[in-house]
Amino acid sequence: MQQLTQSVRRVRAAFLAAAALAAALPAAAMRVVQASPQGEVATVNQVLLRFDADAVAAGDPRAAAPFELRCNGQPVAGSARWLDARRWAFDLARPLAAGQRCVLTQAAGWQPAGGALQGATRFEFATGAPAVLEALPWPGGSIEEDQHFLLSLNGAVDEASVERHAHCEAEGLGERLAVRVLRGAERERVLRALRRDRAEAAGPSLLLACQRPFAPGARVRLVWGRGIAAAADGALRVRQEQRFQWTVRPRLLAEFNCERENARAACLPLAPLRLSFNAPVPRALALGVRLVPLGGGAPRTPRLDDDAPVVSSLRFDAPLPENARFQITLPAGVVDEAGRPLANASAFPLEVATGALPPLARFAAAPFAVVEAAARPAEPALLPMTLRHVQADLVGSGGSGGALRTLHLGPATPDATLLQWIARLQRDHDDAWRTRAQPLLA
């Protein structure tokens, strides 16, 4: 019994000595060896920390978050998780907006398992100045002379800095054009006209106008310049400019065209006369155009291709009289759908003319001829042909000279000869006679 008591005393003494030694030794220390992001970054979706030793039991989903994230003094929504025993991640509910200064600090009361956290416990980063995510109208397209530009941003911006550091550049001008930020009722009115009255539903936006209208047909650039600042922190400024380019649409012009045998000839009476606009005009104005015969007669009204409220072209259908002269007249005050006046209105009334019908000689069933057998045996078989302005050159029975000959292709005709004639008929069929004047069977 005495020996057992002495053994218990020795074990108790050893335990107390070990406890005293453990208390005297420093606890195991660990550090954060990686914190991301840091400095100034454009887009932040996740914050990541890595420790140099195991900070929690691996795979423990109940382990507490070691750090807290605040941006511009406010907590940030998101979800925290341990990737493993040494790595911790905080996934943001949505990407951080521009103009945010964020601080990551150790959570109150948190300590790593089996040790103490030493070294840096505060990490900072910022999301930089606002950038343009989208520009409307789409860059590369066509714009009006007094175009407004709607910019979608990734954060709130200091509007005064935009007016100081953004500008427009126009082809042919050696100076920068200042921009103006549209605000209040003026902004709402323009957005309604652009059908963008809910422009800010998806995030911050800015409506800009350049201080001077652009010249028609010029190339234009909008520059989001260096120095533009975030609304929440004026020290966060744009470091790299963004450029967006468009082309101003040309002046509203009307153009007449028709089919001709050659560039110097009058219009063919068998094809329609067309008037086109390089920008859509209201349908009612297009219907007011008239084709007035100068030799007398009722004016012709135009035909439109569809029932759209705006149109880009109209036509006066064929057939038209041969060798006739006309005037194309326009209604007063022709403008396009944007209200721009017709730049070449002084060219109207426009005088146009038709020429003679072109010569024509073709089989009625072209490209293949059909011989129509006579109803009576005594009558000859007939080969229908269409002739126009070639009758004087062709001689029938009782004439002299003769430019029209008869060619018989019967069963004895070689296949190669038949194929040559089929190819010639196909080549000279229909529209080819508008430019080819030689008789088919010469």
What does this structure look like?
The termini are far apart. The protein has an 8-stranded mixed beta sheet with strand order 12-14-17-16-15-18-19-13. The protein is 13% helix and 29% strand. The chain has 442 residues and is α+β, with helices and mostly antiparallel strands. The model is unreliable at 14-26, 397-402 and 433-442 (pLDDT under 50).
How confident is the prediction overall: mean pLDDT?
Answer: 84
**Main sheet?**
8 strands, mixed
Helix content: 10-25%
* Rg over C-alpha atoms, rounded to the nearest angstrom: 43 Å
Count every helix, treating DSSP H or I runs of 4 or more residues as helices: 5
Describe the secondary-structure layout.
Blueprint: H1 2-24, E1 29-30, E2 32-36, E3 39-40, E4 46-51, E5 67-71, E6 74-75, E7 78-82, E8 87-92, E9 101-106, E10 116-117, E11 122-126, E12 132-136, E13 142-143, E14 148-153, H2 159-165, E15 167-170, E16 177-181, H3 184-193, E17 205-210, E18 219-224, E19 242-248, E20 254-257, E21 273-282, H4 283-287, E22 290-293, E23 310-316, E24 325-329, E25 350-353, E26 360-363, E27 385-388, H5 415-427
Parallel strand pairs: 1-10, 3-11, 13-19
Antiparallel strand pairs: 2-4, 4-8, 5-6, 5-9, 7-8, 9-11, 12-14, 14-17, 15-16, 15-18, 16-17, 18-19, 20-21, 21-23, 22-24, 24-25, 26-27
